[in-house]
């Protein structure tokens, strides 16, 4: 389908017409020894009957022997895959009729001043552009690049569509829920140049975020140095997958900018020295000052989804308390960062994740999430006429798609001043407290 016809706007949302797409997924180490049906149902949360039907219809299949002599070999059909265990050299194919989630339309649709011949109005805020790079102020609630159920409703695909570009190369990433500076290469050479700068000059790169958090944040600047992990609610395992040897040097520097006593909320400057998954959000939660509207790390309402997140946070905080017993420095406010510390920690062992007490809570979490997904299917009680997949309400709650965390500055200081750069946005309106 042409991207010129795939988007439509409704109820203040950018929506995508359903389409077909074939996913090719490399095997993760924890999948080895499991069946395809088991992975799709227990780890990816797909309905068991739908998964069996798609394996039977050869929509889901395995290409084995990848990169080996005599390969690849396609293995298709339920009878061939029902008991066949996944191996390290497998590639999993999955053709899907995609129903993408909606994303917020964002700003008013306008024609932007840009050298590119825009084929449509756009709600993207362009911070900077030259012959190599395009810098945008990413709205909260939109993923950086295609991932999971999002493809066309990602920043890279929206930029390609709105500015009529054939390709785009993201030079780094921002979490879906985070807004702010995002650097995109408009040529492969430009993308590679900025990617190399970012990856190979860690000591000269400065990223600055602003967050609105709960409580009266400490006045003095401090560094938090603590390993980052989370518990996956679908499969009940620790993320990231290298949980036996997680780096201990995950470091964020914090400084309070403002405090509102009536709201009992603070505006905080956050400078991540490393860039682990959800690092700022987890460090703020662990410090006792979670982001005000962070529905994953500071769940507030009484919905089932928020109840599950509350239980997950309780489990993770209990695991961190166990870790602090062996590594008390992880909860200290330091006057300097320890990014050059190359030590690692076995999170499974230190957090006592394998104990019966914690495993009982994790198993309860997984069951509750599975029941929530089933209840959602029963609530909407709609299936696609083409692919027979359950359909959910695509009119999202925009307030739950983004959080008060904004990347307002991305700076590189080179020995040669002409090679340096600094991209910056204004603070969001939610900073006015």
TrEMBL record:
InterPro entries: PsdUridine_synth_cat_dom_sf, PsdUridine_synth_RluA-like_CS, PsdUridine_synth_RsuA/RluA, RluA_PseudoU_synthase. This is Pseudouridine synthase RsuA/RluA-like domain-containing protein. Residues 133-285 form the Pseudouridine synthase RsuA/RluA-like domain. Gene3D superfamilies: Pseudouridine synthase. SUPFAM superfamilies: Pseudouridine synthase. One of its GO terms (molecular function) is pseudouridine synthase activity. PROSITE patterns: PSI_RLU (PS01129). GO terms for biological process: enzyme-directed rRNA pseudouridine synthesis. Pfam families: PseudoU_synth_2.
């Amino acid at each position: 389908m042409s991207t010129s016809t795939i988007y439509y706007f409704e109820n203040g949302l950018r929506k995508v017409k359903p389409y077909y797409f074939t996913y090719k997924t490399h095997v993760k180490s924890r999948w080895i020894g499991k069946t395809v049906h088991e992975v799709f149902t227990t780890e990816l949360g797909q309905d068991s009957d739908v998964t069996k039907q798609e394996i039977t219809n050869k929509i889901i299949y395995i290409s084995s022997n990848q990169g080996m002599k005599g390969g690849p070999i396609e293995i298709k059909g339920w009878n061939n895959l029902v008991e066949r265990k996944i191996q390290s050299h497998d590639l999993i194919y999955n053709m899907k009729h995609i129903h993408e989630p909606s994303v917020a339309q964002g700003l008013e649709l306008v024609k932007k001043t840009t050298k590119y011949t825009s084929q449509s109005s756009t709600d993207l805020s362009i911070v900077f552009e030259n012959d190599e790079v395009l810098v945008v102020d990413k709205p909260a609630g939109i993923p950086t690049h295609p991932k999971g159920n999002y493809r066309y409703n990602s920043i890279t695909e929206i930029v390609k569509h709105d500015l009529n570009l054939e390709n785009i190369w993201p030079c780094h990433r921002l979490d879906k829920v985070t807004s702010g500076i995002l650097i995109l290469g408009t040529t492969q050479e430009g993308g590679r140049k900025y990617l190399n700068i970012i990856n190979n000059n860690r000591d000269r790169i400065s990223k600055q975020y602003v967050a609105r958090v709960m409580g009266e944040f400490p006045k003095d600047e401090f560094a938090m140095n603590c390993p980052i992990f989370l518990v996956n609610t679908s499969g009940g395992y620790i993320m990231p997958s290298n949980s036996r040897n997680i780096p201990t040097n995950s470091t964020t520097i914090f400084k309070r900018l403002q405090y509102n006593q009536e709201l009992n909320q603070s505006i905080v400057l956050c400078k991540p020295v490393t860039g682990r998954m959800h690092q700022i959000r987890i460090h703020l939660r662990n410090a006792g000052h979670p982001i005000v509207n962070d529905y994953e790390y500071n769940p507030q309402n009484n919905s089932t989804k928020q109840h599950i997140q509350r239980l997950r946070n309780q489990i993770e905080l209990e695991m961190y308390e166990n870790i602090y017993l062996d590594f008390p420095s992880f909860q200290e406010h330091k006057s300097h960062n320890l990014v050059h510390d190359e030590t690692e920690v076995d999170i499974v062992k230190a957090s006592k994740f394998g104990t019966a007490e914690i495993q009982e809570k994790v198993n309860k979490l997984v069951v509750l999430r599975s029941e929530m997904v089933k209840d959602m299917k029963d609530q909407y009680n709609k299936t696609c006429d083409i692919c027979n997949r359950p359909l959910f309400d695509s009119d999202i709650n925009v307030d739950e798609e983004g959080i008060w965390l904004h990347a307002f500055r991305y700076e590189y200081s080179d020995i040669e001043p002409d090679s340096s750069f600094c991209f910056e946005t204004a603070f969001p309106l939610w900073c006015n407290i």
